Amino acid sequence: MRVARGTAALLGAVALLVVIPSNAGAAQAPKFSETTAIGTHNAYEKSKYTYFAQALDSGASLLEVDVYTDPLTRRWRVSHSNPLGNDNNCEAAKTPGELYGKSRNQDLGSCLDNIAAWHQLHPDHRPIVFKVEMKNGFNQTIGLGPAAFDTLVRQKLGSMVYKPSDLLDGKYPTLDAAAKAGAWPSRDDLTGKVIFELIPGTVEQANPFDHYWTDQEYGDHLRDLYAAGNIATAQAFPAVLGAAAGDPRTGRYDASIRPWFVFFDGNAATYVTQGYDTSFYSANHYILITTDAAGVSPAISSTSPTDAEVAARLALLAGKHASVITSDWSAKSPAVLGSVVDRS
């Protein structure tokens, strides 16, 4: 039977009404675990930014800070190579009006003060990961252990911090269970939030007398806090450091703390050239930080690539399931460093 042209058009319109949902066209904001962004290596260095507030202005989604525990003063020092002194762009500034002009070379507490002051100026800022390399590790014997770190961050930043307990949301027994369930919030829901990632430092790893590194120590800390009903006090996510095949937690940590690692951090070129199956990270909604993004073949400038080269490298590593790629691209504009794409 032939259908009249007008009748056919009407039926087609009805069919469209049936198959198109009422919220069609309303884009769903991607989850934090579903995107790939750009970070700046050693953003606390004065050669990168004159003031740490400028690093915060940069648009980068990750900023790295190196921290030493100073046994003489019992302070958290911020420096690349001096464990007994501060050498950085953090200011003695606690209010927005004091930023961009106060004395620099301050300790970690002042870096956190700068973050808090900058946040007052930009309460709706992008989510920012602060990657903290504990250069010589925690030092419980001088009162600078994981709990002291938590206390300092909590006192300085308060509710700005997205914490392990926020991912657990009172529903999951471990961070691993929460990540695998896709419990990460959207990037929009993380507006105005900061996240702390902890990795073991180069000095700590080279110390033949130190076999209890930052990652394991903070993993134990999370496990014990959860068991005691105090997980809400934890302020950071420990990361598994180093690119490796398979699940790098296996064989490195005992079974009691493996589920407390959902951040992974390794060299971008190693992941790519070794052909590691990085889909493991996105499939489980883990956060994968890939460092020295410029070094992936074909190598590009680690300081001043073109905008097109940065965009291509971001797309390449998003296809390799990275959550954040990092390099020394501090000279690039906020429009470039603030780029966020879909994670493959």
UniProtKB/TrEMBL annotation:
CDD domains: PI-PLCc_SaPLC1_like. Keywords: Hydrolase, Signal. The keyword Signal applies. Residues 1-26 form the signal peptide. InterPro entries: PI-PLC-C1 (IPR032075), PLC-like_Pdiesterase_TIM-brl (IPR017946). GO terms for molecular function: hydrolase activity. Pfam families: PI-PLC-C1. SUPFAM superfamilies: PLC-like phosphodiesterases. The keyword Repressor does not apply. Its EC number is 3.1.4.-. This is Phosphatidylinositol-specific phospholipase C domain-containing protein. It comes from Streptomyces kebangsaanensis.
